[in-house]
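Minutes, project check-in

Agenda point 3 was the complex the collaborators sent over. CS summarized: two entities, 569 residues total, and the question is how they sit relative to each other. Sequences were read into the notes so everyone works from the same version.
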Amino acid sequence: MTDLSIDLGFIKLKNPVIASSGTFGYGLEFAPFIDLNKLGGIVTKGLYFSPRPGNPPPRLVEASSGLINAVGLQGVGVKKFSEEILPQLRKYSTAIIVNVCGERDEEYASVVEFLDKEEGISAYELNISCPNVEKDGVCPALDPETTFSVVSLVKKSSSRPVITKLSPNVTDIAEIALSAQEAGTDALSLVNTFLALAVDVETRKPILPKVFGGLSGPAIKPLVLRVVYQVVKRVKIPVIAIGGILSVKDALEYLITGAKAVQVGTANLIDPEATVKIIDGLTEYCQKNGIDKIESIIGTLSTL
Amino acid sequence: MIKDSQARIIDKKSWNNYFLFSMESPRIASQAQPGQFIMVRVSPHPYPLLRRPFSIHSKDEKNIEIFFQVSGLGTDLLSQKKVDDILDILGPLGKGFHGGANLNGKEVVAVGGGRGIAPLYFLAQELRSHGASVKVFYGGKSLEDIPLKEKFKREGFDLYCSTDDGSFGFKGFISDYLKAELEKFTPSHIFACGPEEMMKKIARFADKKNIAAEFSLESVMGCGFGICWGCVKRIKKNGEEGWVKICEEGPVFSSEEIIWTEEEI
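CS then shared the predicted structure for the full assembly.
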């Protein structure tokens, strides 16, 4: 019997496959397709304190093996989430991780304080890296000091573990990662989308109304593998990798590089069964290669 | 919603750039309603990445049809599929046309512009089976852009065609043709699908004449089942206005719900 479980130190996951925020709704939407109990975890769609209207359309542009989005975190707010969604979601036996957003540090803290009263949440994922909210993709994760400030405030406000989701749109992501670690984050998720531009050659205007969007999908996988490699060498806390995972092979590449778990994002939009297929694929891979515990392959990338 | 990864293409017709595919998908066929759509995976590889949305053009007990125009890489790849190829599809998705069941004995109009005719065949059949008398208005840029006219005629629908260049039927936009014809009769309902400009014009005169109108909207979609929030339209519903998902709450909306861009109405 293959052991796919992962110990992140602050939570144990059934397996290293987590559904990524913004590509899995609030989780329940996938119940008709897959057994949610099979997942390592679910990161719910980004949650501000109040409902958010999101950006005007168009919000999507397809790129080569990728997707540029500028949704702008449209969502329901903490009240509706707690009253209508969480009661159903907590029935499932999987780690529920709530993706937390804020316009200011205090809003992140107030979301966490509100949710701390609710049962059935395993951890928070701090979304300090969405490129679609402020102009030019500005977000706290672009700077070590703003990262430190929001992470330390949320850590003070939260009774639960905090995972910080970083942006790849920086010169040295390891510096930001270290800053988040110093501020007390329990883990890192790497990474949010890459700031991207799509051009309409007929109108000679950007296709997306706010000019930039965030690129996800298989196109970014090699970039994120590099980021994960750079960060795991520098930090002590666990890293959860996110970027273009469509297949079990993609997931394995991240685990071997040193990520303790992975998040499956864009793939959910194309194949609602993607997460479960990857989990089944991990079992198969382990059996085929005589691996008893998936944890034993983490960080085994040989660079000799 | 059903994921059918074994939808076999059983028939394929083509007219230049337009294609009509029939595929076997009994479970989706049994649930499909006019105005609903399916998401089709056009390649098993990561490029192109996203599924493509197509209105359900017709159905019988076992099969569904889609009608599409090649307009990019996704539809180009799909158009190259052959009879007996297997497609991976999700459906039926969205909410279809609302006004169908209570139109017994009423006169109604279905207006399709270009590939926008796709959902209207299924709708027209359904409306007729509920006892409505259906006039179909079908327009395109040129004669080659209205390839389904024979099909509607064969089925005995009262058909009004237009072409922008006058190569067939009324010369001009189908919305202008309809507007002119509405001097002679007043339908109880208008159902339309096509370019946004066409639908906006129809909304304007339908509102003026107090004719109930429904529109099937087209959009790029990331998932088709309400997850990514990528395909929104400004919608006013139950006193609230906001960005509403076309794939989940639509693709069909009534005239009073839609807030068209660049308010010219």
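Noted in discussion: Chain A touches chain B through 34 residues (CB under 8 Å).
Follow-up: revisit at the next meeting once the mutant set is ready.
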